[in-house]
Amino acid sequence: MTAKIASDHSEIAALDEADTLAGFRDRYILPEGLIYLDGNSLGPASHNSLAALSRAGNEEWAEGLIRSWNTAGWFALPSQLGDKLGRLIGAAPGQVVVTDSISVNLFKLLHAALSLRPGRRVIVAEEGSFPTDLYVTEGVAATAAGVQIILESADGPPIEELIGAETAVVLVNHVNYRTGALRDMRALTEKIHSAGALALWDLSHSAGALPVELDECEADLAVGCTYKYINGGPGSPAYLYAARRHHGSLRQPLSGWWGHARPFDFETGYVPARGMRAFLTGTQPILSFQALAGALQDWADVDMQMVREKSIGLTSLFMQLVEKRCAGLGLVIDTPREPELRGSQVALRHPDAYPVMQALISRGVVGDFRAPDVLRFGFTPLYLRYRDVADAVEALRDILETEAWRAPQFARRAAVT
Asked: Does the annotation count 376 as an active-site position?
């Protein structure tokens, strides 16, 4: 069953009519009748990404075979894609490589940060961080003698007050994955630097959704993924950033052959490559790289300020309509109302959030659930319409009013939520 169009109000129609980003929707492949509000978890395929993937498989691999490492430029892709992606995160060329996963890259960068601050043994992070960040941080602490982890908690002092003389690095999410709350990158980075520590930002829920200015904010390090707002495909490779001022001093622990200065000399000892290639480890996933290359074509002419303005418009409309149409139905908005304090998603709390979301999905409105009680909706400005927002709220209202979510099939937990 697809989502029913619930409103053709002139105000909504006028917003879509005035939308300067409306033409970008045609670049993406969206099932007919589906309202997709989960691009903050997995973005849709684009015509460019599928064309690039087809070309990589049918021509570069099938025809070129091993020659394509040279003839198709496979070997250079980590740096080339890094520079293209750098435009979306405010990084000048030569400071980003695309490689591995966030978890692996975070492990590299935390170790590298500790090596830059050898007299300090404290990592400060957020208790509400995406769990993999915490798991990896625990793993780093287990392999680095004497390292202590201090976490900002909901009922404790803010992260700024946890940074001290023993802090080596502060790991912080630019946008909170659950609530959508946005950190002030410039102000927090200045605070971290004033204590002599390094700032490591996780951009997973901000890159591609709003302007990010790593260089201008003087961030030290950053990680992020490419399968959410950037639309690189399921499991597409992540990226990492290191400010140029740290190049030559950083040493990452996973010293594989792709990070060697001369990998095809097959030397016995390890000599790190210069610059960001030193953060590479093993052979790269070329088919995923080429799909990402196609996805990045879609961003070449995108104005990120326009993306941000529409994002604020979409999220503001959603919250206004939820308050108006779903009043008294058990929903609590858990995302900051102030536009400057949120990313491009809205979180609603409800005691039966899981079956409510499953009922929504059955009606063609796709968001996701985050334990224990969060209905999470992502708003991706390049392909969402204002009418989609209005129709999604109407479907949510009907499900809650009729208690359609109580149907037994909606309570069955799937492996991925």
From this structure: yes
Please give the model's pTM, rounded to 2 decimal places: 0.96
* Catalytic site residue from 38, 133, 202, 220: 202
**Quick one: CA dihedral 291, 293, 297, 298, positive or negative?**
positive
Closest CA to 15 of 392, 390, 394: 390
**Stretch 191-218: mean pLDDT, rounded?**
98
Residue 227 known to be catalytic: yes
**34/31 Cα distance (integer angstroms):** 6
| Mean per-residue pLDDT, 319-334 | 97
Concerning whether 130 is annotated as a catalytic residue, the answer is yes
In three-state form (DSSP H/G/I as H, E/B as E, the rest C), the secondary structure along 225-283 is CCCCCCCCCCCCCCEEEECHHHCCCCCCCCCCHHHECCHHHCCCCCCECCHHHHHCCCC
Residue 41 gets which letter from DSSP?
Answer: T
The predicted pLDDT at position 4 comes to 43
Q: Which residues pair with 96 in a beta bridge?
A: 241
Give the number of C-alpha atoms closer than 13 A to the C-alpha of residue 292, restricted to the C-beta side: 31
**Residue 226 C-alpha from the chain's centroid:** 7
Catalytic-labelled residue, pool 178, 325, 363, 376: 376
Q: Sorting pLDDT into bands at 50, 70 and 90, what band is 2?
A: very low
Tell me how far apart the alpha carbons of residues 156 and 152 are, in angstroms, rounded to a whole number. 7
Active site residue 324: no
